[in-house]
Design brief:
Radius of gyration: 18 Å
Number of strands: 5
Helix content: 40-55%
Strand content: 5-15%
Number of helices: 9
Largest sheet: 5 strands, antiparallel
Shape: globular
């Protein structure tokens, strides 16, 4: 699956939110890039809606076509479309690996998943967008346990808070999915209602 591979710090500065997590360059210059970065930007309803969509897209590393598919699926499900959208994004396998503290960033988690280091319920899964569900068990493959990224993950585990809907067992390099997250459990500085409004006009 195609993905954005450009500089994320520039995108963080453009959108006004740290997309990487602990990005020192963004913290140093938290204003838009370019010659007119500090100039006053004209606000508009459309701009705000587009900006929220872009924040979500770049946070999870999803291209426009796939992101729109998530929106269509979210709208099809029962409940609030915005909540469903965030839930679908949060349940991606690469995001779950990141949230559990087994990877430094979502990009890193995506790479580890793509390289086939994870089993879901005993079966190898190398698709970052794979949707995890309640009671899934995610393990690092036995062959991969002594690789540097996973040794580091075990040693540094606890530096990041694991959300309540997941349980990470660093000694076994296992993730338990206790439930599908509700919006209140998802730490994401995004107004998903603006994304719904953006797509509903199209």
């Amino acid at each position: 699956m195609a993905r954005y591979t450009g500089p994320l710090t520039k995108k963080s500065r453009r959108l006004g939110v740290d997309l990487v997590g602990g990005d020192a360059a963004f913290e140093k210059r938290p204003y838009p890039p370019g010659q007119h970065g500090r100039a006053r930007i004209k606000e508009s309803e459309y701009r705000n809606q587009l900006q929220e969509k872009q924040k979500a897209r770049y946070t999870y590393g999803v291209l426009e076509k796939q992101f729109h598919k998530y929106y269509v699926e979210a709208a099809r499900r029962q409940g609030k479309t915005g909540d469903n959208l965030v839930q679908l994004l949060e349940c991606r396998l690469d995001n779950v690996v990141y949230r559990a503290g087994f990877a430094r960033t979502r990009r890193h988690a995506r790479q580890l998943v793509t390289h086939g280091h994870f089993l879901v319920n005993g079966k190898k899964v190398d698709i970052p967008s794979f949707q995890v569900t309640q009671y899934d068990i995610i393990d690092v493959r036995e062959k991969s346990l002594e690789m540097t990224p996973f040794i580091v993950a075990r040693e540094t585990h606890g530096e990041r808070i694991v959300p309540a809907w997941l349980e990470a067992l660093p000694t076994r390099m296992r993730i338990l999915v206790h439930s599908v997250p509700v919006r209140e459990q998802i730490d994401l500085p995004i107004q998903e209602q603006l994304i719904v409004e953006y797509y509903s006009k199209k």
